Amino acid sequence: MSEESFRFGQKRFFDDKNFPRGFSKSGEFTLSEAEILSLYGDTMLAFEAGQLEPETAEEKHFIKVLKHPNKANTKLEHVWVKYTKLTREPKKFHTLNSSSNKRVESVTYSESYNEEVA
Prior knowledge:
The chain is mainly alpha-helical. It has one domain (3-92). 45% of the residues lie in helices and 0% in strands. The mean pLDDT is 83.
């Protein structure tokens, strides 16, 4: 499968809401991935919205990938799956804080000093 048999978008694809500085400057996509999104993203979004019917085998496979992302084979399909994960799934982050409900009372230096002196 190659991108040549996948239709270009009618216009360049942008997502100013999620990537206001562009795909290539977001730090999430490589330059080639950003270029694929810009060229083919409009078509891929139209397929996803049901506004466009697939004409080639690659486009029909892309429709299947929309329902089953783990079946992505081409770079184009992988980039779209990556884009949808970044824009539609909540971002995960990890903290260094404990999740326990125990509160530890802190003792200031002056309180501990006063107790030793008294």
